[in-house]
Amino acid sequence: GAVVSQHPSRVICKSGTSVKIECRSLDFQATTMFWYRQFPKQSLMLMATSNEGSKATYEQGVEKDKFLINHASLTLSTLTVTSAHPEDSSFYICSARRTDQPQHFGDGTRLSIL
Amino acid sequence: AQTVTQSQPEMSVQEAETVTLSCTYDTSESDYYLFWYKQPPSRQMILVIRQEAYKQQNATENRFSVNFQKAAKSFSLKISDSQLGDAAMYFCASTAPGANSKLTFGKGITLSVRP
Q1: What is the pLDDT along chain B (115 residues), one digit of tens a residue?
Q2: A67-73 and B60-61 as β-strands: parallel, antiparallel, unpaired?
Q3: What DSSP state is assigned to residue B101?
Q4: What residues of chain A lie within 8 A of the CB of B89, using their CB?
Q5: Which of A22, A96, B29, B32 is the most buried (most CB within 10 A)?
Q6: pLDDT for residue A49
Q7: Rounded to whole angstroms, how far apart are CA atoms A32 and A71?
């Protein structure tokens, strides 16, 4: 089946640090990639939608200068949390999708900002 | 616009028994897809089952089946012969066709399985 790799799985860093999370589709070319944030015991909250070679589309309330998304190729999207602060601590999940196929999710990244 | 409602935050089932998780949705799309995702404590999102709205036949995957009532906009998940490994959060979701179409998730339900 389709596999999406997300790296790193766990990050602990100091306040003010920028953190980059990678999302790769390993065995298919993803038309679109999505980035979600999830708080404990809550549903996934869509942050942005990205397509290869174009600017990401951010959901309302998500700061694009804070959460930089780069979609360099059909198999790689990155999310950079810039100047991270404790309130950015969360679980971040990516997904990748081919046209009219279900979204396949990465295993998520647990980000902790001290 | 799409909305997905899961009104039960928690459910519990005895091992080997059957449990049904409820989900209702609303959409203005004429064509759409419905999903159930499982998220165990590892927090990996696992696709359990998928239903195309234009198909009248209910989808089935081994012990998992859905009751899709299109007119009532209801999409419940039935888990038969429940196993301890079924304990997880379950999310109902919907999307329209098209690569950029977003998944709309319900709030999720936490299922516990009693040994």
Answers
A1: 789 999 999 999 999 999 999 999 999 888 999 999 999 999 999 999 999 999 989 999 999 999 999 999 999 999 999 999 999 999 999 998 887 889 999 999 999 999 9
A2: unpaired
A3: P
A4: 41
A5: A96
A6: 94
A7: 9
Gap between the Cα atoms of A7 and B108, Å rounded: 25
Contact B44 A91 (CB under 8 A): no
Which tens digit of pLDDT belongs to each residue from A5-56? 999 999 999 999 999 999 999 988 888 999 999 999 999 999 999 988 888 9
Residues of B in contact with A71 (CB under 8 A): none
Q: Which two tokens stand for residue B99?
A: 């690569």
Question: Which of A8, A59, A15 is CA-nearest to residue A37?
Answer: A59
Element (H, E) at B88: strand B88-95
Chain A residues 11-50 with CB within 8 Å of chain B: 31-32, 34, 38, 41-44, 46, 49
- At residue A70, φ and ψ (nearest 5 deg) are -125, 130
Nearest chain A Cα distance for residue B54, angstroms: 14
> Do residues A70 and A78 make contact, with C-beta atoms less than 8 angstroms apart?
yes
Angstroms from B73 CA to nearest CA on chain A: 20
Q: Is the peptide bond before A102 cis (omega within 30 degrees of 0)?
A: no
Is there a contact between B113 and B86 (Cβ–Cβ < 8 Å)? yes
β-pairing, A104-105 vs A109-113, is unpaired
Tell me which of A57, A105, A111 to substitute to probe the interface with B (most B C-beta atoms closer than 10 Å): A105
Residues of A whose CB is below 8 A from B33: 102
